[in-house]
Amino acid sequence: MSEQQTTTEEKVLNKEELNEQVAENEEVETASEEIDPLNEALAKIQDLEAQLEEAAKKEQDILLRTRAEIDNIRRRTEADVEKAHKFGLEKFAKEILNVIDNLERAAATPNNSEDESVKALFDGVELTLKDLISTVAKFGIEPVGAVGETFNPDLHQAISMQPTEGFTTNQITTVLQKGYLLNGRVIRPAMVMIAA
Asked: Residue 41: its pLDDT value, please?
């Protein structure tokens, strides 16, 4: 074979090798082009999954806060209803205390009369007073402030302090007006005099 044929064959072979190399390079470029969109798609999927997880956490947080708020509203409402049941009579109780005070004053009036009708009237006032006190007690109204009790500023209102024999300091010596509680809440403090 001649050199020219060999050179031509080498050129053909070189061309074929070049074509193969170009084809390989194109495949590599195509593969790398295919890999880049795949990587981008994977990155986007991961980003979307992270956003989805964050949204799920926010939704869970909102759900928990809403449930807690509903529970708080329910508890407050129950407490308000309970207070309404317990203390709904407070205004009425304050008004009825004046009637009790008047009946106690009438019952405390000395009965020097021998007249039977006057005695019956006093007995009727005492019975009415006892019945009224037992009725209001059924609804949670109870008196406070008795002679000999220790002074309590939450329950009693001190009008004066006087040294008194037979009583220790801060002990109630005289009750000027009874105080009353409605289910444990003071609706009127007792006006008292205490020992100094």
From this structure: 87
- Asked whether the beta carbons of 193 and 158 are under 8 A apart, the reply is yes
The rounded distance, in Å, linking the Cα atoms of 103 and 124 is 10
CB 99 within 8 A of CB 131: no
Q: Could you tell me if residue 130 is inside a domain?
A: no
Residue 153 forms part of a structural domain: yes
Please say whether the beta carbons of 152 and 172 come within 8 A: no
In a domain, 22, yes or no: no
Digit-coded pLDDT (tens) for 7-21: 555 555 566 666 676
Integer Cα distance of 104 and 88 in angstroms: 25
Domain limits for position 171: 140-195
8 A C-beta contact, residue 184 and residue 193: no
Question: Angle, to 10 degrees, between the axis of helix 116-138 and the axis of helix 90-108?
Answer: 150
Domains contained in the chain, number: 1
* Contacts of 141 by beta carbon, 8 Å cutoff, 6+ apart: 89, 93, 96, 180, 181, 182, 187
- C-alpha–C-alpha distance, residues 71 and 149, integer Å: 43
